[in-house]
Design goal:
Layout lengths: L10 H11 L4 E5 L2 E4 H17 L7 E5 L4 H12 L3 E4 L6 H11 L3 E4 L10 E4 L22 E7 L7 E6 H14 L6 E4 L7 H10 L4 E4 L8 H10 L4 E3 L2 H10 L2 H4 L6 E4 L8 H8 L5 E8 L3 E7 L15 E2 L3 E7 L7 E8 L5 E2 L3 H7 E3 L9 E12 L2 E7 L3 E4 L2 E4 H9 L4 E10 L5 E9 L7 H12 L8 E4 L13 H19 L4
Parallel strand pairs: 1-10, 3-4, 3-5, 5-6, 9-10, 11-12, 12-13, 25-26
Antiparallel strand pairs: 1-2, 7-8, 8-18, 13-14, 14-15, 16-17, 17-20, 19-20, 20-21, 22-23, 24-25
Helix pairs in contact: 2-3, 5-6, 7-8, 8-10
């Protein structure tokens, strides 16, 4: 499946175009401060000047460990306009993890606000919270080489240590051009919700600034408070929002007609998890008739790959919407997984979205980025996503992670299917199903749920009874544990390892209460 040709312009050229034509337009709102395009461009150039004066050159890597805010946006632009690769590092990460990433990417400089506790042999810059203009000598913008590394982002590794993924300018250029040309308007007021060390933040930041829009920095304390987040979205007239599915579901559970009437949203984008069109989400968007829901798909290793815009009637949406069609410059292949049909199998991605590979990990790069026979579009290199999909006439339908499918008593079970069925219960606001292994080595399927109306009632018995009506016996979990909220990863996705720990603690409590086994 081919998304068609793409010849995107350089995203830096697009941003600087808005600086030239609308310098006094509001670019970033951070708490009670507002920064114009001219101020942000000068601030970014000052960062470039400091780096250049310290010997940083095109092709070097610069680590940035800053909290979300206008200063972090200026640092990102300053690194990239110099032609260096931006490496975002979350300052809230444990020092040992930060030190590993610093050692692994070997940056020429680290930009931060204070002492992160990590050791670095190169330059460390302290960025001012106040915008500043560069010295009179201007720093030219580096040539827009599409093959030049734009950023390195760290993703979870099976060894327990993160692995760096290097993506080039062509990946960003393609994503930015698609986003600005397919949004309701390119200049939307957009919330900056995503942690900076996750790739969706590039859609928020660059997709907004390259379209002439305004980026509004969300206060960190609102991330887990959906009612306050809705009030903030209304107060700041936010028009576009990027959130993972679990955060969207909790917003929908909280939203009421009187709240929805105050919102300015015209587009909500979600990615990273399977979208389930629950009754809460349908009701929320029915109360936002001018707002569309867009389902994106991609990985850190291949940037944004597909997109699907759901139709105007939320009550006509499928329970599990497709992930859509490929972006221009992207081509999708399927590697059959003994499914009996050539249209179902592991998804392979080729074309513009592909990363250069894993930083310093040639063996892993060769394992996941594989050679393929020339495709209809002439591509010969593909990324193995690990996702099971079906290619249909309407686009790609996501089925599951290959590693989310497990075998119980020799029968294949999809954990995400169990989650989807739990969410069909109107009393359930969020759900996660996991495999739990006891100390004796016994493995069983168990689920955790968050109730929409809060604790109360015989949750487990009712949930299991519903599941037995729609799932084969082997797919019905042994237990359903009620939690006040599902634990999340720093990017906002469900943290299934933490769910296992929560369920294990609950089982231990049951055993202590009964003096026996759960």
């Amino acid at each position: 499946m081919w998304g068609g040709p793409a010849a995107p312009d350089c995203f830096l050229t697009a941003f600087l175009g808005h600086v030239a034509t609308a310098p006094q337009t509001e670019a970033v709102v951070d708490a009670d401060r507002s920064f114009t395009y001219a101020e942000l461009a000068d601030w970014a150039e000052a960062v470039s000047a400091d780096l250049e004066a310290a010997g940083v050159r095109t092709g070097d890597r610069v680590a940035v460990s800053l909290p979300r805010g206008a200063g972090a946006v200026a640092a990102l632009l300053g690194v990239m306009r110099l032609g260096a690769a931006y490496v975002p590092l979350d300052p809230e990460y444990p020092v040992e993890r930060l030190q590993f990433m610093i050692d692994d990417c070997a940056p020429s400089a680290v930009i931060t606000t204070d002492d992160t506790g990590v050791r670095h042999s190169g330059l460390t810059l302290r960025i001012s919270p106040e915008p500043r203009a560069p010295e009179p000598r201007r720093v030219p913008v580096a040539d827009c080489d599409p093959h030049l590394a734009a950023y390195v982002i760290y993703t979870s590794g099976s060894t327990g240590w993160p692995k760096g993924v290097a993506l080039n300018h062509r990946c960003i250029d393609t994503m930015v051009e698609w986003q600005t040309s397919h949004s309701p308007r390119p200049d939307l007021r957009t919330a900056q919700f995503t942690p900076l060390n996750f790739d969706v933040s590039f859609q928020e930041i660059l997709g907004t600034l390259c379209g002439g829009g305004t980026l509004v920095i969300m206060p960190e304390e609102l991330r887990r408070e959906p009612r306050r987040l809705l009030d903030w979205l209304a107060e700041h007239r936010v028009e576009r929002l990027f959130v993972p599915f679990i955060a969207l579901q909790m917003l929908a559970v909280t939203a009421r007609a009187e709240i929805l009437a105050t919102l300015s949203l015209v587009e909500v984008n979600t990615a990273g998890e399977q979208v389930v069109c629950s009754e809460d989400i349908r009701s929320m968007f029915a109360g936002l008739p001018g707002c569309r829901l867009v389902n994106h798909y991609g990985q850190s290793e291949s940037a944004m790959v597909t997109s699907h815009i759901l139709g105007p009637d939320p009550y006509a949406w499928p329970h599990l919407p497709p992930i859509g069609v490929p972006l221009p410059g992207c081509e999708l292949l399927v590697a059959p997984e003994n499914t009996g049909t050539p249209h179902i199998g592991e998804l392979l991605v080729t074309g513009h979205p592909l990363a250069d590979g894993y930083l310093g990990r040639p063996e892993l790069t060769a394992e996941r980025y594989v050679s393929v026979a020339p495709t209809p579009a002439g591509h010969t290199r593909a990324f193995r996503t690990g996702d099971l999909v079906e290619l249909t006439d309407d686009g790609v339908r996501y089925l599951s992670r290959l590693d989310s499918q497990t075998k119980i008593r020799g029968i294949r079970v999809d954990l995400l299917e169990v989650d989807a069925q739990l969410l069909s219960n109107p009393d359930v606001a969020a759900a996660a199903t996991v495999l739990v292994t006891t100390r004796t080595g016994h493995t069983s399927l168990r689920s955790a749920v968050v109730l929409r109306a809060g604790p109360g009632g015989p949750v487990e018995a009712a949930a299991l009874e519903r599941l037995r009506k729609v799932l084969p016996e082997v797919s019905v979990p042994v237990s359903v544990t009620e939690l006040p909220e599902l634990p999340r990863t720093p990017s906002g996705k469900i943290d299934r390892e933490a769910v296992v720990r929560s369920i294990t603690d609950d089982l231990a409590g049951r055993r202590r209460g009964r003096g026996g086994r759960a």
